[in-house]
Automatic annotation (TrEMBL):
InterPro entries: GT-D
Domain Glycosyltransferase GT-D fold intervals: 65-262
Organism of derivation: Lutibacter holmesii
Higher taxonomy: Bacteria, Pseudomonadati, Bacteroidota, Flavobacteriia, Flavobacteriales
UniProt protein name: GT-D fold domain-containing glycosyltransferase
The organism's place on the tree of life at top rank: Bacteria
Amino acid sequence: MGIKSCLIKILNLFISYFYKVFKTIFRKNIREDILNLSSIRIINTSQTLDVVENSIVNQQKGVYMRFGDGDVFLMNMKMDSFQNPNLQLAIEMKEAFECKGENVHKCLAIHSERYGYEEGMFIGNHLVKDKEAQILLMNTFQFFIGENIFSPIALHFNASNNIERAKIFLKNLKIHTKLFIGNKYLKNDVLNKLFGNVMHIETPEKNAYSEIERIYSEAKNELIKIDSFCVIVIAMGCSGRPLMKRLYNDDYNIYLFDFGSLLDGFNDNMTRTWLKKNKIDYKYLLSDL
């Protein structure tokens, strides 16, 4: 290879490198400009709960998906606390973010001074710093263009700040729930009080995506037996989002509800800081459902 050919090859490598660097910077700047110029506000917890409850009571097909940092990590092949990354999961997580529809209620953990918070929220209790919220939104805003961003802690926050409202929602949820897909260690008495005598498809505490084909197959087998509208409650962390995406895209008349870490509180397992900081009357919430 001559000197001229070597120089051309080196030049092309430099051009390729700088293109990639500046393309990343350019995209980042565009995202920041969009977010700085926009007036994005998260839907508050009460409104979110009303919207979800309305879909359930009126038996409308839909889904309530709660997205956060862990979902973004997994979409980008990075580690989450309860789930190892892999390529297929990354692909399905992106597809979950891309879900659209009249009753697709996608949430993002951006309760902050900048994007909206409520009295009673503070750092460690559902409130995040503006910078953290902006980074999360900057990494996902393309999935929310033209759509509302719902609160991921609608039931959680009402359970500690408006317990009567939370109780009404839980009653309506129980009436329509026919299937629970979640942690195999959930106590039977909690399961029965919250959702009634429903089928429980058990999922592992960690790395639930490794069993998603089994879980998905069992869910479809149960849904075949149900000939009317119902709610499916999901509680399997980030791995639940790809499952919800699959079931929503199938031809079932269902509403998929992502319950979240409040379920750990009912199970006497204080896995989150916010659970430790709030004195929730779980016994009262479970009574007379």
